[in-house]
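Hi support team,

I submitted a single chain yesterday and got back a structure, but I'm not sure I'm reading the token output correctly. Could someone confirm the output below corresponds to the sequence I sent? I've pasted both exactly as they appear in my results page.

Thanks,
R.
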Amino acid sequence: NTPTPEEALDRAAMRDWVWHSIEQLSEPDRLVTLLRYFSDASSYEQIAAVCGVPVGTVRSRLSHARRALAGGLRTAATTAHADVATSNDTRWREGSDMLTTAMGGDFERVVRESWWPNAEMIVPGGPRGGRDLAISGMDRDLAAGVRQRLRNVVASGDVLIWETDLISPPDDPEHCPPAALWLQVLREGRVRQLTLFHPVPALV
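Hi R., thanks for writing in. Yes, this is the structure output for that exact sequence:
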């Protein structure tokens, strides 16, 4: 059913209150919260792999985040804050534009313009390096015929998550996993750390 104007206003207000409260969390608590509730890498084990911490630490951080959010929501209800939908729309457009540029073979320009020179790239269970690792990995994928399509964007403060569909070449349909999660930690709007993770599809 189509919500009434009053219901739509209430939903928008609640959405903004929730996101404002999430932005007040510490970076470690915000990371696990975004992954748990707004991404496909939502199991404790996958969150632990993305964040590079034990499962027990994930549980502890989520518990702490829930307590902080309970108090934060009460405060946020009486605090003016930016419209979340507008912010997320902007992040979506930026992500879409960057991936389009990357798929066109110019990922190096994207990295040079939007990453810090000393930015770090982490692949859980795999290599660790800097901007050159990200560029060479994308170049290899493009040369193999792999393409990516943006499916979801989650942003809160200095944490930005892209979820993408990976499209293998027709002659090698099992070339790559079906999806990727880009967990980007920002500083002054530029990437200072990227963790690239391939979520395990949920069993149906």
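A quick pointer for reading it: The domain at 5-76 is CATH 1.10.10.10 (Arc Repressor Mutant, subunit A). Let us know if anything else looks off.

Best,
Support desk
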